[in-house]
Design goal:
Blueprint: H1 27-119, E1 133-139, E2 152-159, E3 162-166, E4 170-175, H2 178-187, E5 189-194, E6 197-207, E7 211-228, H3 237-249, E8 260-266, E9 271-276, E10 290-295, E11 298-318, E12 321-329, H4 338-350, E13 359-365, E14 369-375, E15 378-387
Antiparallel strand pairs: 1-2, 2-7, 3-14, 4-12, 4-13, 5-6, 6-12, 7-9, 7-11, 8-9, 10-11, 14-15
Length: 389
C-alpha cells in the first residue's frame, strides 16, 4: 500500500459506519433506564436492610427462646422444690397433729389427776427460802350476831428471797446511793489496781429473777387450843378423849376452861384439838404451856398452845431490777487472798474520782460460786449461801 496515495473512503472498501446508539433508543429512554437501575439498587439495599433486621430479629428470638427455656427450667425446679416442701410440710403437720393428740390426752389426764387431787383436799406444799414476815395490821373481830368470835386476826406481809448465783471472779456491790450504781453501769469499763497490776473489769446491770409476795392471814382461835404430848396408855380411844374433856373443863390452872363443845383426839400422834363452847375461853390458857394431867394413877405434863389457822392471799409474782447493786465481771486471778482483793475493789469503787461512792455491801468470789439472796423490800444482799458450782 502506497502511503503517498490519497485515502480511500470506507464504503469503497466494503465498510460502513455504525452509530453508537442502538437502533430505536433515545436519550430519554436511557435516562429512564438509569433511573430504573437506581430504583432497583435502592430496593436491593432495602431488601438487604430488611434481611439484616430479620437476622437480628431471629437472633433476638433465639436469645428470648433460650431465656424462656431457662426460665421454664427454673420454674420446673421451683415447682419441684415447692412440691418437696409441701410433702415435708405435710409430714411435719402429720407429726404435729400426732403430738397435739398426745398433748390433749396428757392434758386430759392432768385435769383428771388435778380433780382427783382436789377431791382429796390435799394442800400444795412448796419449799421456799427462809423469809421475814412483816406485821401489817390486826383485823376486826367478827360478829356472828350473838357474840363476838373473840378470834385474833393478824395480817403479815411476806416476800420470798430471790437467790442470785455469783460465779467465780465476780463481785456484787451495793451502794448507798442508786445514782452511783447507775453512773458506774453507764461507764461499763473500769481499770482497777489489783496487786500492783491494772485489771480491766466490766460493770453489768444487775437483774433479779422472779420472786413472789403475798399476805399471810393468821387467825388465833378464841375457842380452840392444841394439846400435844398426850401419853400413850392401854385404854380405849374414847376413854382418853373423855378424860381430856373432863380435865380441861375443870382445870384449876386455867381457872376453869368452861363447857367444851368438841374434842378431836389423834391417838397416833398424841395430839388433840379442844373446842370450847364460849368464845374467848382459850385466852385463859395463854401464858402457861404445861398442864399436869392424871390418868391411870400417873401424872403427865401436857403441852398446850393456841390454835392457828393460816391463809395465803394476794399471792403474786414480781420482777425487780436492782438500782443500787452492780455486777462486776472479769476480775483476774491474783496471788492475794479473797478478802484482800475484796478490800481493793471496795477502795477503788468508793473513790468519787473513779465515779464511785459509799458502799453498803460487797461480795467477791474468787473460787467456786455463791448464792446471794435479795429481798423484795430491800435491794441489798441480805444473806448468802456459799457452795461450789
Amino acid at each position: 500500500m502506497d502511503v503517498t496515495s490519497p485515502p480511500l473512503s470506507l464504503q469503497d472498501n466494503g465498510f460502513c459506519m455504525v452509530p453508537t446508539d442502538p437502533p430505536g433508543t433515545s436519550k430519554e429512554e436511557m435516562k429512564k433506564l438509569q433511573e430504573e437501575l437506581k430504583m432497583w439498587k435502592k430496593r436491593v439495599e432495602e431488601a438487604e436492610s430488611v434481611k439484616m433486621k430479620l437476622l437480628l430479629s431471629k437472633l433476638t428470638a433465639d436469645e428470648e427462646c433460650d431465656r424462656a427455656e431457662k426460665k421454664l427450667t427454673e420454674l420446673k425446679e421451683q415447682e419441684k422444690q415447692h412440691q418437696d416442701r409441701m410433702i415435708s410440710f405435710e409430714q411435719e403437720l402429720f407429726l404435729l397433729n400426732q403430738e397435739k393428740t398426745e398433748l390433749k390426752k396428757e392434758i386430759q389426764k392432768l385435769k383428771e389427776d388435778l380433780e382427783e387431787y382436789n377431791s382429796k383436799d390435799n394442800p400444795i406444799k412448796k419449799k421456799v427460802a427462809e423469809m421475814k414476815l412483816k406485821f401489817s395490821h390486826l383485823e376486826k373481830m367478827k360478829d356472828d350476831g350473838a357474840d363476838l368470835d373473840m378470834d385474833t386476826h393478824c395480817v403479815f406481809g411476806a416476800a420470798t428471797k430471790i437467790p442470785f448465783r455469783l460465779n467465780q471472779n465476780q463481785a456484787l456491790l451495793t451502794f448507798e446511793d442508786e445514782e452511783v450504781a447507775q453512773r458506774l453501769t453507764k461507764m461499763s469499763k473500769h481499770c482497777v489496781e489489783l496487786d500492783n497490776r491494772t485489771a480491766n473489769v466490766t460493770v453489768k446491770p444487775f437483774d433479779l429473777d422472779m420472786g413472789f409476795q403475798f399476805e399471810l392471814h393468821i387467825t388465833v382461835s378464841g375457842k380452840k387450843i392444841n394439846v400435844s404430848q398426850i401419853p400413850e396408855l392401854p385404854i380405849p380411844k374414847d376413854w382418853m378423849r373423855d378424860k381430856l374433856e373432863l380435865h380441861f373443863y375443870k382445870t384449876e390452872q386455867a381457872a376453869g376452861g368452861g363447857e367444851i363443845k368438841n374434842v378431836t383426839y389423834n391417838q397416833g400422834t398424841g395430839t388433840a384439838v379442844i373446842t370450847f363452847l364460849k368464845p374467848g375461853a382459850s385466852n385463859k390458857f395463854v401464858g402457861c404451856t404445861k398442864y399436869p394431867f392424871c390418868a391411870e394413877g400417873r401424872w403427865f405434863n401436857l403441852s398446850v398452845s393456841p390454835h392457828f389457822d393460816f391463809h395465803l392471799r394476794k399471792f403474786q409474782p414480781y420482777c425487780r431490777v436492782s438500782k443500787k447493786t452492780i455486777l462486776l465481771k472479769g476480775i483476774p486471778e491474783v496471788e492475794e487472798d479473797e478478802e484482800t482483793v475484796q478490800d481493793m475493789i471496795e477502795i477503788h469503787f468508793q473513790k468519787p474520782s473513779n465515779g464511785g461512792g459509799e458502799i453498803e455491801k460487797i461480795k467477791y468470789i474468787s473460787r467456786g460460786a455463791a448464792y446471794v439472796c435479795f429481798e423484795e423490800d430491800s435491794e441489798d444482799a441480805t444473806s448468802q449461801i456459799t457452795g461450789d458450782s
